[in-house]
Amino acid sequence: MKIPLSQKNNCTALAKTSDNAINNSINEIKEKLSATFLEHEIDSAIPFIEEIHELKKQKNALILSHNYMTPDIYHGVSDFVGDSLYLAKKSSQIKADIILFNGVHFMAETAAILNPERKVLIADLSAGCSLSESINANDVRQLKKKYPNTPVVTYVNCSAEVKAETDITCTSANALAVIESLPDKRVIFLPDEFLAQNVRNQSTKEIISWEKGKCMVHEQYQADDVIAQRAQFSDITVIAHPECTPEVIQEADFSGSTSQVSHFIKKGDNKNVLLLTECGMADNLKTEFPEHNFISSCHTCPHMKRITLKGVRDALVHERYQVSVPSHIAIPAKKALDKMLNLSL
Ligand code: 13P
Ligand code: SF4
What we know:
Bound molecules: 1,3-dihydroxyacetonephosphate, iron/sulfur cluster
CATH architecture of the largest domain: 3-Layer(aba) Sandwich
CATH topology of the largest domain: Rossmann fold
């Protein structure tokens, strides 16, 4: 796991010591941004970054950011960064009056379910997810009728009302382990069809999946393109997120959650990496692994990119947009999330 920015150069803590320390921290941020940003882009980002650090102090707010966030958000203002499993766990451990979640809506909703007493904000309420949009609570109820006595496992990329209908949640970091932890021979797995197929290829269980659920970003990667890249660069390591098709996963050297991808790169010694996931991931890894060569024409998630540095500043200034879940949905949804978190996989 990447060391949280707050431990490396926490402006809140540094601000108490001296102006010099603040400048050092801003200099570190500038240095990190220089891996992917042009000088004038850094110059426009810094005033927002300084203002956001000040607002966090004033409002006792903490910022959690997904690995796909742009480098100005990821390196500039985040207290904790990671994959959806890490951020869900973190949100239930931290103490702050405000949690500002930089990611998509289902992630902020998860933080709100786990923290009913805290104010959870997201910079743009329309930051959705094609997987989450593919299914609603009624669809799950119909499936449960069709397959009685079959546990429902939901990938966290779904709405709170869908989580409320399910037995246990999982993320891309633990999908196989969660499914294997169940005693049943047959499970319903929602909503990611490709993740279901990828888990099915490694599991002995019968997995009933949801054909309509696809990630609009990862479904674009093609196995033929991977084969062509390997022919061109003989020494590349191919890493694919498990939301990619089974054909792409078959061609990859490693598949894992966004944080598992960072760990894998850290442990390995191949410096040429073909990364098959959202563009923000390679941008942020370029700072962490300056010696590596990330080869890819990546695809962007339009939902993740709705979260901008200015939007983050405005969210803190106006304490908007609050994400909350009514208790009749939050209580059963929390049960499904807690079951996953208690497995400590
Ligand atoms: P991770 O849980 O691997 O961070 O993935 C979340 C996601 O939305 C990937 O598209
Ligand atoms: Fe959803 Fe895919 Fe975007 Fe992740 S990358 S938030 S799964 S649409």
